Amino acid sequence: MPTVVVMTDSPSPLPDRAPTPVRTPPPGAHALVVGATGITGTALAEQLVAAGWRTSGLSRRPPAVEGVEHVRADLFSRESLQAELAGLAPTHVFITAWARQDTEAENVRVNGAMVRDLLAVLGPQGSLRHAALVTGLKHYLGPFEAYGQGNLPDTPFLEDADRLDVENFYYAQEDELFAAAARHGFGWSVHRAHTVTGFAVGNAMNLVPTLGAYAAVVRATGRPFTFPGSRTQWDGVVDLTDAGQLADHQLWAATTPAAADTAFNVVNGDVVRWRRLWPRLAGHLGVEPAGPGDEPLTLAEQMREAEPVWARLVDEHGLVEPDLSKVASWWHSDSDLGRDVEVLADMTRSRLAGFTGYVSTERALLGLVDRYRRARVLPA
Predict the structure, then answer these.
(1) pTM, full prediction
(2) What is the DSSP letter of 115?
(3) What is the 3 state secondary structure string of 301-334?
(4) Tens of pLDDT along 313-327?
(5) Which helix (H) or strand (E) holds 231?
């Protein structure tokens, strides 16, 4: 049986982050956000527009951020990129997109080619000053096929850790970035985020609406909000990456000479324990919290029959997304919460180079729940 934990009061209404500086665009700056409708791309586009950058967004559907010029192109076709990006001449490109494949070999082939083709089109235009690539902590943990296996580097992860001796599409993307930068003479930065939390609908990997949908279903069916992961994650410390923090980090690196041509970890700056955070989150969501059992009770298992319940909630609350698979990603949250290893990243490299961004993970998560409720993605 899961361990029941006691709910605690919500935190006081303080800010969830340090003030975000306005990253003023350099003269003539034109940013291209690749993946402008995802969690990372949406937050980045919001900050770029607010700071006065001319901003284009490459995505299948138009970005939700007002002021972004939409570029519709097939990221996995050089011919499409050549046609749609001709004459665009951005000065800065931010690569925040990837496409999950069935095997890591295919991930390497497809996602490596995406970076190679994109920069092969933009590089010869002669305008590019900086390219930023968003990856993640699977750089240190290995791909899904070999996740958390073998000899992993010690935590907190440091950017100069040796690459693992396995195929990893993050390595392929970095190598394409490095080669293109050397060939065409632009600067670069790599941003290794942990689990990214932010606002975007239809994203394949999104912890907050996943847990929000889970809470809505168990509340509707009279069940506890049981932590679906491992005791290692429940009891240990972990960090997360807020999408706003990641966006600011990219803009900082793109406009800071001391950050040029460097790979960085980027997390919120605090650490949390799920055993303390879980009852806080449950209280905000209006459900009874419970800790893990001896074996993880995964979301994929618990939510196997959730679609009819979600359909009823959509009707009762007037929710905007009837397709539960576009709100919740059970598999991805299971992989994060079910890990049997400690995962957290060091940010000393960023701090010494001058980055001071800081986010309260707990306050940011609760604020995102409220934002999804206001947007009627989650029921109130």
Answers:
(1) 0.93
(2) H
(3) HHCCCCHHHHHHHHHHHCCCCCCHHHCCCHHHHH
(4) 999 999 999 999 999
(5) helix 231-235
Q: What are phi and psi of 99, to 5 degrees?
A: -130, 120
Task: Identify the band that residue 150 occupies on the pLDDT scale cut at 50, 70 and 90.
Answer: confident
Q: How far apart are CA 75 and CA 202, in angstroms?
A: 18
As a whole number, mean pLDDT of residues 221-236 equals 97
Please give the full DSSP string across 249-261, using - where no structure is assigned.
HHHHHHH-GGGTT
Q: What distance in Å separates the CA atoms of residue 83 and residue 16, rounded to the nearest whole number?
A: 43
pLDDT band (50, 70, 90) for residue 13:
low
Beta bridge partners, 30, equal 54
Ordered domains of the chain (ranges, CATH): 26-193 (3.40.50.720), 207-238+272-342+361-375 (no CATH)
3-state secondary structure of 67: coil
**Coil, helix or strand for 221?**
coil
CB 339 within 8 A of CB 332: no
**347 and 267 in contact (C-beta within 8 Å)?**
yes
Measured from the Cβ of residue 283, the count of other Cβ atoms closer than 10 Å reads 18
The span from the CA of 228 to the CA of 163, in Å, is 30
3-state percent helix, strand, coil for the chain, nearest multiple of 5: 40, 15, 45
CA-closest candidate to residue 252, choices 147, 363, 357 = 357
In percent, how much of the chain has pLDDT > 90?
Answer: 88
What is the rounded CA–CA span in Å between residue 363 and residue 36? 25
Q: What is the pLDDT of residues 92-109, one digit of tens each?
A: 999 999 999 999 999 999
What the block records as the tokens of 285 is 């969501």
How far apart, in whole angstroms, are the C-alpha atoms of residue 379 and residue 303? 17
- Annotated catalytic residues are 138, 170
Tell me: the pLDDT tens digits for 333-343?
Answer: 999 999 999 99
